[in-house]
Amino acid sequence: MNNKLSRSAKVYMVLIFIFLYAPIVVMTLFSFNESSSTYMFTGFSLKWWKELFTESAAMSALLNSLILAISSALVATVLGTIATVGIFNTKNKMYKKAMMSVTNIPMMNPEIVTGISMMLLFVFVGTLVNKSSVLGFGTLLLSHVTFCLPYVILNILPKLKQFDMNVYEAAVDLGCKPFNAFFKVVLPNIASGIVTGLIMSFTLSLDDFIISYFTNGPSFQTLPIYVFSMTKKRVTPDMYALSTLVFIVILLLLIFMNVAESKSNKKDRSDEV
């Protein structure tokens, strides 16, 4: 009976993974299609990949997305690390619970609500300073940092809880200044959480469409918005190649994140022993 259940569970998992990844496999396959057909593979060709890298609009949108994702990830990671340390060192339990509840709101809030509310805020601020075209890279950066911050905090906080603060206090007692003690003792022990938060922020920012749609301006177009504009007409296979490229980058980042987290967990277990 147990063997039958185990076999059924394995078959079920295989079907689930096929359902999840079959569209990506098909998209990748048709990015190498010789013709522009979306239902018949006529032959292997790198035609659409070559066309992708000669398409200035697509490359410009990809570059904009990378600049935005890297900038928002770095800012969110720095601010998130500072915020996490502040929350962790707070002695008032009610205040700490309130701060964690506020931190979770951007994750629980529907993206369309966040996007519309931030757009209204930016436009309102723009009217106060008599600036009509306020939406652009700056507003996109602020909105992306806002929804990336909670993920950074939630990745770093468990690492701080695992860290023995007596080591930090011993460093201070031995003459190390608190600021230097943090960078020499605490930071290396929470580095895996910081890296995980950084990578997660990058992937979330690179992938975001809804919030970006409401907070971007005509002068700065991200890749998801560019792809959305392409859906209003016939999508060519060079977009399949572009989507495949983004998927590969995200996959490599996730593998790197999992490897880093696995090494960190092994280190924590060895330290405990």
Textual characterization of the structure:
Helix 3 (56-89) packs antiparallel against helix 9 and helix 3 (56-89) crosses helix 11 (223-230). The chain has 273 residues and is mainly α. The protein is built from twelve helices and no strands. The mean pLDDT is 84. Helices cover 80% and strands 0% of the residues. The protein has helices spanning 2-30, 47-54, 56-89, 93-108, 111-128, 137-162, 165-173, 178-189, 191-207, 210-215, 223-230, 237-272. The two termini are 39 Å apart.
Radius of gyration: 23 Å
Give the number of DSSP strands. 0
Count of discrete alpha- or pi-helical segments spanning 4 or more residues: 12
Question: Structural class of the helices, strands and pairings?
Answer: mainly alpha
What separation lies between the terminal Cα atoms? 39 Å
Unreliably modeled segments: none
Give the amount of beta strand, in percent.
under 5%
Question: Tell me about the biggest sheet?
Answer: none
Overall, the morphology is globular
The overall pLDDT average reads: 84
Helix/strand order, N-terminal first:
HHHHHHHHHHHH
Helix content: over 70%
List strands and helices in order, with pairings.
Blueprint: H1 2-30, H2 47-54, H3 56-89, H4 93-108, H5 111-128, H6 137-162, H7 165-173, H8 178-189, H9 191-207, H10 210-215, H11 223-230, H12 237-272
Helix pairs in contact: 1-12, 2-12, 3-6, 3-9, 3-11, 4-6, 6-9, 7-8, 9-12
